[in-house]
Structure prediction request, 171 residues.
Amino acid sequence: MAEVSDRFIAQATGHEIVMPDKEGKHPQIVVTLTAVEGPRSGRSVQKYLSLHPNAAEISAKQLRAMGWRCNDITKLEGLGEVKCQVTEQMREYPPGSGKMRPDYAIWPLTTRNTLRDEDAKKFADRFKALAIQTKDNVIAVTDDNRALVELPQPQGMNGQSDVGSPGGADF
Prediction:
C-alpha cells in the first residue's frame, strides 16, 4: 500500500467527461480539485475517476464525497458544492514501469460532534462521580512538569522544519 504523502481540504472546481479513443478503454471523469484551506490553498490537482466496471463504484463514492447529488453521471449536479478531504499518495503508473505519480483519494469532510449546551449538564453529571473518585490523583503543576507555552516545530531529517512540506505536521 502506498504511503500518504499529503492531506488537504479541497473542493471540485471543474470536471470533464473523457470518452475513450481506443477500443477496450473506458470513460473517465477528470475532476479538478482546488485546495481551499492550509498551506496548499489555491493549488489545483486533477483526479482521474475511471468508469471501468471494477472501479466505477469507488469513483461514484468519491464523486458523492465531492457533492454530486443527482443520478445522472453526465450532469454531475452539486459537484463542488461541498469541501472534501483529499489524501495524496505516490503510486507506480503504469504498473511495472517504475515511474511514480501522485494519486488522490477523496473522502467526505467530517466534523467532530461537539456538546450542545443542553447536553453538557447531562454529560457532566454522568462523569461527576468519576471526577470525585479520582480527585486525589490530581497532579500539581511544578517547574519540573509545567507544559511548554509554545510547542517546538517538527524537525526533518536535515534539521529543518517539516511544516508545510509533504508529510509534514500541518495538513
Q: What stands out?
A: DSSP finds two helices and five strands in the chain. The beta strands are 4-18, 28-35, 44-50, 84-92, 100-108.
